Amino acid sequence: MAFDPTREAADRLTKVYVELTTACNLDCLMCVRRTWKNETFGPMSWEVYQSLIEQLAEFDPPPTVHFGGYGEPMTYPHFLKAIELAKGTGSRVELTTNGTLLTAELATALIDLEVDKINVSIDGVSEDVYDEIRVGSDYGQVIGNFVELYRQKLSRFGRGVFHKPQLAIVFVGMKRNVADLARLPQLAHLIGASEIKVSNVVPYYPELEGEMLYDRAMYSLAFRASDHIPNMSLPKMNFDETTSPALAAVFDSTVSISWLQSSLDAYTNYCEFTQRGYTVIRRDGTVAPCLELMRDHPVYLLGKPQQITHYTLGDIKENTLREIWTSEEYTVFRDKVRSFPYSPCLTCGGCEWFEANQEDCRSNTFPVCGRCPWAQGFVQCP
Q1: Where are the alpha helices (DSSP H) in the chain?
Q2: pLDDT tens, position by position, 61-111
Q3: DSSP string, 164-219
C-alpha cells in the first residue's frame, strides 16, 4: 500500500507503549504474568530500543512514549538512559510503575529529566489490603517513596501548580479493595497526585471472577443507548443513604443512562487504542495493536475460559514503525475495530465461539474483539 500523507494526517500515531521488560520484582494477585507459559522474562535489548527511538524521529509530531506493559520499567538496566533518549526526540514521556524502586536519587533524576507523568499502581489504601494484592511490595515504603518525590517537587517549584512529573494513582477495583475507593482522594493529596484512574480487574484465572465488580454491569442496559429503550438523563445530586438505593435500582432497570446529557454508552464498542492512535512495542520489537493482544493468555467468564491469542502486525527489527503503522494490514485492522462489527461476546459468553478469539458468530475472523473488557468500558489503560 502506497504511503498516503493525507490518510496519515487523519490516522496519526499519538502514543507508543514500550515494554522495556517483562521482568517484575512483584507477583501481584491480578497480574496476567501469572498465566504466561513458555515466556522468557527479561529486558528489551538496547539495540532494539535505540532503533525504536531513531524510528520515532520519523513522526512529526513525535508520539508520546509510555514505558509500560507487563513488567516493571524501573528494573530495566538502562532505565534513565532510555528516558533521556525518548525525551531527546521531543516526545512526551510517561511511565507506569509499582513504585517500589523509586529512591530519593531516582526521584531527583526523573525531575531533572522532566518526565511528564508517572502512573503509580496502588491497589489498596489499607496496608493489609495493599500488601495482600501487591505481593512482594510494602505499602509504607511505596507511599514514602512518592511523598519524597512530592517533597522534592515542592522544594524546587513550590505549591500551586502541578509540576513535572505529574503523578496519577492507578487503582484496580476488586471486591476485596473497593472500600478503599473512598480513601483515594486523601492519598492523592498526601503524595501530590493530580489524577486517580480506577479500572476493573480482568479475570485471568477462575478465582478472579469472584473479585469482579462488573459481573451484572456487563448485561445492564444502563450502558447501552438504543432506539428501543428510553434514556434517563441524571443531574448532579447527593450520593448518600437516601439516593444510593434508588440509583442502584435505576442502573438495574430497562433504561440507558446519561449523566448531564453525557451518555454512559460512549465507551461501548469503543477501542481507545484504535480511536486515539496508540500502539504497543513488545520487548522483542514486535508491534501489537493493544495491551490485550500482546500475549497469549486465558480470560474467564461464567466459569468458562477463553483463550486469547496474541496478534502482531510487524517487527521494528525488519520494518520501521512508520512502515508498520501505515501498512495495509494495520490500517484495515484499525478501520474494522473502529466500526466494531463484532459479536457481543462479553455480554453473552454462551456459545462455542467464546472459547477463543479466532472467530465469532458474525463471521468475523481473528482477532475478534467483541469480548474485550477495554472496548466495553470496564477496563481503562493508564
Answers
A1: 5-10, 46-56, 79-88, 104-112, 127-133, 139-157, 184-191, 244-251, 272-276, 321-325, 328-339
A2: 999 999 998 999 999 999 999 999 999 999 999 999 999 999 999 999 999
A3: SSEEEEEEEE-TTTGGGGGGHHHHHHHHT-SEEEEEE---SSGGGGGG-S-TTGGG
Q: Are strands 304-308 and 297-301 parallel, antiparallel or unpaired?
A: antiparallel
How far apart CA 270 and CA 377 sit, in angstroms, is 8
Least Cα distance to 41 among 315, 312, 282 occurs for 282
Q: Measured between alpha carbons, how far is 106 from 112 in angstroms, rounded to an integer?
A: 10
Q: CA 98 → CA 25, 52, 68, 366, 370, distances in Å?
A: 9, 25, 11, 33, 30
* Alpha-carbon gap, residue 328 to 334, rounded angstroms: 10
Q: Give the DSSP per-residue string, 3-53.
A: --HHHHHHS---EEEE--BS--S---TT-GGGG--S----BPPHHHHHHHH
Query: What is the distance between the alpha carbons of residues 331 and 251, in angstroms, rounded to a whole number?
Result: 37
Report the DSSP beta bridge partners of residue 287.
281, 314
Give the rounded distance of the alpha carbon of 222 from its chain centre: 24
- Decide if 357 contacts 368 (C-beta within 8 A): yes
264-315 pLDDT tens trace: 999 999 999 999 999 999 999 999 999 999 999 999 988 888 999 999 999 9
Q: How far apart are CA 92 and CA 70, in angstroms?
A: 21
- Asked, as a colleague might, if the bond just before 344 is cis with ω within 30 of 0, I would say no
β-sheet bridge partners, residue 197:
170
Contact between 348 and 368 under an 8 Å Cβ cutoff? The reply is: no
> Beta-carbon neighbour count of residue 140 at 10 Å?
11
- Whole-angstrom CA distances from 206 to 227, 252, 277 are 36, 26, 33
pTM over 0.85: yes
